């Protein structure tokens, strides 16, 4: 382990230079860890906000307003598909909410409260009341409640298209994450829409499905289109092409930043090692004259790289975690942010790449060292 | 030749391919174990070239060199480095110590390069070397904190660490004052006599040369004299050769 010992002494003897390059690696890796985790979490947050509480795949009749039959075959296929996390058959009824002054169109999404919770997460999104959906009960959005000063316990009158007027008791007010939804969407039990629409027990407006991996929707939707003839299978990724394009562009720019940061780190280490190799030419020449083999003198610079790479990368990861904690704390305080989750896989890649880049940086000084002739050093004093 | 510690036969060195320059040519001699030899000659006579060849730092263009029976041309770069570490010790004009290490570590360096374990016996060997060199108590000091004479003694200690068969010294007292020069010579002599180490000293110093047992004189890359000094220890002026009658060929 003599080359390691010599490498350590060389690094210690040029402490300021060593600390600067370690700081350079640390900053590079910290940026990697922070930017990588920030972008991944931001995308996760965006996806969650956009589609976390909406179906990923919807099966409906191609003709609007016509019911889709939730057959035992469909039930079996849906339940048997890997990656499906929730299946919610719903019946949607368009009604008009009327009070003394105003008439507002409203879409009533009808289903079992337990099932609707799987996709719409009504319990989690409740801002007031208790969102039960027994017969004659309704859960409305925050914007509607605010606009018409409605609170849980109030009764509201709705008219179906056929002219029937129904009085419903508001049990809860939920924030669905979008102003339009909060104003135009409300939830009721399964019976009211069924009775109004005249659907059979196995007929629904749509079968809504959520997946554990939202990005697996296209493959599953394609497979289902082949299996269910005469059924319209909608995929969220097709409906949100612009968002996906934005996410993909964001990923690309993130990768570009990371690649350039790594290149900067690599150039930094390589140039420092090259300078160190020149500074230590005399010592290397002496060691060679004393009988040290070329491979061992070369490995001094490899060890220098390893030490700087490991220390710099470790510090970088710690600083990266610090930045993440600081960012999360700062944005949580202002209430404007989203939590950044450190990405273990991404951090592992950053560590590996950091150390690998440091090792690659040792190639030039190692090669120059192998070429060094000890006679030159000895004769030139 | 088989018994000789060093055997050079027709040794030559030519530098440059496009414009060849001969630095050494047709040098033949043998050295037995325990000899105390000076290599003398003017600047550019080929002394350092010969020392580099003997020290396995360079390879001959012509002829053969055997060190303890091993033909140097049969070794690759790594083999030459290994033999250099085991068989040879170097003392240069400039001390060439490693400033990142202590006196003790500098002395120990050739042994560390050989890959041997640093046990109590090796620690005792370093202590003994420090004692012989008059550097007791300075082992833990940084090599940079010593005087010029002390640094050169550390360099001698480093050359002796692996108890080499041959010590090659290139103008070892060139940077030292008279007092330190005499001390270094005395040290070489003591080690030569007590440990049986062979010394080859390249020197300009007539006094040092006159005190060796044998003088190899180079001129224009040729070995022109190989003389045994019957009056070793007495001053000699090679230019005027006042001891010519006393020197045996």
Strand order in space, largest sheet of chain A: 3-4-9-6-8-7
Low-confidence stretches of chain B: 234-249
Write the element-wise H/E pattern of chain A from the N-terminal end onward: HHEEHEEHHEEHEEHEHEEHEHHHHHHH
Distance between the amino and carboxyl termini of chain A: 28 Å
Q: Report the CATH C-level class of chain B.
A: Alpha Beta
Q: How many DSSP helices of chain A? A: 16
Looking at the chains present, what oligomeric state does this protein adopt? heterodimer
Please state the CA-atom Rg of chain B, rounded to the nearest Å.
18 Å
Shape of chain B: globular
Largest sheet of chain A: 6 strands, mixed, barrel
Average pLDDT of chain B, rounded to a whole number, is 86
The total of helices of chain B stands at 7
The figure for the number of domains of chain B is: 1
Defining key terms:
heterodimer, A: 381 residues, alpha+beta, 2 domains, 6-stranded mixed beta barrel, two-stranded antiparallel sheet, 12 strands, B: 249 residues, alpha/beta, Rossmann fold, 7-stranded mixed sheet, 4-stranded antiparallel sheet, 7 helices, 32% helix, 26% strand, disordered C terminus
Write up what this structure looks like.
The complex is a heterodimer of chains A (381) and B (249). Chain A has 381 residues and is an alpha+beta fold. Chain A folds into two domains: 2-49 and 244-380, no CATH class; 62-230, no CATH class. In chain A, 60% of the residues lie in helices and 18% in strands. Chain A has helices at 2-13, 15-51, 72-80, 113-120, 122-125, 142-147, 179-184, 191-197, 217-227, 236-239, 241-279, 281-289, 294-334, 344-361, 363-371, 374-380, and strands at 57-60, 68-69, 84-98, 103-110, 126-129, 137-141, 155-160, 165-174, 185-188, 203-204, 206-211, 232-235. In chain A, a hairpin with a 4-residue loop joins strand 7 and strand 8. In chain A, helix 1 (2-13) packs across helix 13 (294-334), helix 11 (241-279) runs parallel beside helix 15 and helix 13 (294-334) runs antiparallel to helix 15. The longest helix of chain A has 41 residues, at 294-334. Chain A starts with a helix and ends with a helix. In chain A, 38% of the residues are buried. Chain B is α/β, with parallel strands linked by helices. In chain B, 32% of the residues lie in helices and 26% in strands. Chain B has seven helices and eleven strands. The two termini of chain B are 19 Å apart.
């Amino acid at each position: 382990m003599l080359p390691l010992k010599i490498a350590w002494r060389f690094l210690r003897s040029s402490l300021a230079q060593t600390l600067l390059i370690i700081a350079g690696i640390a900053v590079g890796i910290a940026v990697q860890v922070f930017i990588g985790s920030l972008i991944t979490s931001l995308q996760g947050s965006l996806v969650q906000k956009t589609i976390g509480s909406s179906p990923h795949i919807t099966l409906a009749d191609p003709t609007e307003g016509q019911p889709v039959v939730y057959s035992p075959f469909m039930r079996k296929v849906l339940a048997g598909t890997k990656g499906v996390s929730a299946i919610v058959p719903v019946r949607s009824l368009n009604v008009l909410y009327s009070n003394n002054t105003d008439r507002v169109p409203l879409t009533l999404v009808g289903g079992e409260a337990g099932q609707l919770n799987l996709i719409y997460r009504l319990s989690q999104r409740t801002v007031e009341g208790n969102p039960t959906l027994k017969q004659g009960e309704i859960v409305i959005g925050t914007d509607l409640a605010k606009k018409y000063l409605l609170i849980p316990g109030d009764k509201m009158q709705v008219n179906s298209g056929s002219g029937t007027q129904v009085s419903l008791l508001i049990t809860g007010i939920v924030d669905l994450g979008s102003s339009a939804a909060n104003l135009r969407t409300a939830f009721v039990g399964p019976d009211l829409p069924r009775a109004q629409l005249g659907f059979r027990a196995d007929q629904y407006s749509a079968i809504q499905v959520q997946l554990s991996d939202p990005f697996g929707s296209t493959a599953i939707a394609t497979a289902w289109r082949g299996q269910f003839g005469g059924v319209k299978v909608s995929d969220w990724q097709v409906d949100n092409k612009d968002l996906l394009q934005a996410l993909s562009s964001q990923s690309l720019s993130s990768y570009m930043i990371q690649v350039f940061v790594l290149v900067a780190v690599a150039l930094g280490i390589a140039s420092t090692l090259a300078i160190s190799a020149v500074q230590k030419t005399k010592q290397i020449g002496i060691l060679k004259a004393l009988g040290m083999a070329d491979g061992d003198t070369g490995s001094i610079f490899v060890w220098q790289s390893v030490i700087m790479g490991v220390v710099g990368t470790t510090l970088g990861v710690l600083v990266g975690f610090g930045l993440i904690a600081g960012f999360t704390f700062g944005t949580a305080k202002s209430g404007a942010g989203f939590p950044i989750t450190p990405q273990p896989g991404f951090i592992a890649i950053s560590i590996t790449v950091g150390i690998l880049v440091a090792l690659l940086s040792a190639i030039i000084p190692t090669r120059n060292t192998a070429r060094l002739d000890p006679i030159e050093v000895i004769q030139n004093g | 030749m088989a018994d000789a510690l060093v055997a050079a036969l027709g040794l030559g060195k030519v530098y440059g391919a496009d414009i060849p320059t001969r630095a050494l040519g047709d040098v033949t001699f043998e050295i037995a174990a325990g000899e105390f030899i000076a290599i003398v000659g003017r600047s550019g006579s080929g002394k350092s070239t010969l020392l580099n060849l003997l020290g396995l730092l360079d390879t001959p263009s012509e002829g053969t060199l055997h060190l303890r029976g091993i033909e140097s041309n049969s070794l690759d770069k790594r083999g030459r480095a290994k033999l250099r570490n085991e068989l040879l010790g170097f003392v240069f004009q400039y001390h060439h110590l490693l400033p990142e290490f202590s006196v003790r570590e500098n002395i120990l360096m050739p042994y560390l390069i050989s890959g041997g374990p640093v046990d109590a016996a090796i620690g005792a060997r370093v202590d003994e070397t420090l004692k012989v060199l008059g550097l007791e108590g300075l082992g833990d000091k940084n090599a940079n904190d010593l005087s010029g004479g002390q640094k050169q003694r550390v360099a001698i200690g480093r050359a002796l660490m692996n108890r080499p068969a041959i010590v090659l010294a290139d103008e070892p007292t060139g940077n030292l004052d008279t007092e330190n020069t005499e001390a270094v010579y005395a040290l070489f002599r003591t080690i030569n006599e007590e440990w049986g180490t062979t010394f080859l000293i390249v020197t300009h110093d007539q006094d040092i040369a006159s005190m060796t047992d044998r003088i190899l004189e180079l001129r224009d890359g040729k070995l022109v004299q190989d003389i045994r000094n019957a009056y070793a220890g007495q001053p000699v002026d090679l230019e005027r050769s006042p001891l010519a009658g006393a020197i045996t060929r």
